[in-house]
Write a structure and sequence with these properties.
alpha/beta, 2 domains, two-stranded antiparallel ribbon
């Protein structure tokens, strides 16, 4: 009996510390976003094959120089981790995600990305056209349909110019983007160079 009580007490203590740890992580994430400008388009990017930080910095500088009215910032995770990706989707602070195609397609089923065919020529980006969910007024669940959800990174001029344009990666605008119009403008700038 005494051993069982000791084990149960140990489990309660572990759960308490895990809860405190989770609360600490969430607090740090919230504080990390406090220093950013409200109109910043945050681009979360993670690749299964580590990207060149220099190339991303080069793209960031070019965006800053050529589009002073657009404030974009890369949030790059060099280590691809599905739990990290889930947190980035759930946190709601990102406007654009650049991730492997299979990950994008998984989240698109749940209506996480906006259709882009009104802003881009979908015949030019056929690899970004696939079945996904779109939230429609009056419906509780996303309605499945074929749309242009992502722009292949290999077709983004700024990425090509930097020497880093990996295949199998898509750039998408999130439904939860704080400013979808600004996010679309940044994605257009990345595409046009």
């Amino acid at each position: 009996m005494r051993l069982q009580g000791t084990i149960q007490g140990g489990i309660r203590v572990k759960r308490k510390w895990m809860g405190i740890g989770l609360l600490l992580i969430v607090s740090i994430m919230l504080m990390a976003g406090c220093g950013k400008k409200d109109d910043t388009v945050t681009i979360f990017m993670s690749d299964k094959e580590s990207a060149s930080r220099e190339a991303i910095d080069q793209i960031q500088k070019k965006l800053d120089a050529e589009s002073p009215d657009l404030h974009a910032e890369f949030n790059y995770s060099p280590l691809f981790d599905l739990q990290k990706v889930l947190v980035e989707y759930a946190a709601g602070g990102n406007s654009i995600v650049i991730l492997p195609e299979d990950t994008i397609k998984t989240y698109s089923k749940d209506g996480a990305h906006i259709p882009l065919e009104d802003h881009f020529d979908q015949t030019k980006y056929e690899d970004g056209v696939f079945e996904g969910g779109v939230f429609v007024e009056g419906e509780d669940d996303p309605v499945m349909g074929k749309h242009l959800f992502g722009i292949p990174v290999e077709d983004l001029k700024m990425f090509k110019d930097s020497g880093y344009a990996p295949k199998g990666m898509l750039a998408c605008v999130l439904v939860s983007a704080p400013d979808q119009e600004a996010a679309i403008k940044v994605l257009q700038k990345l595409a046009e160079g």
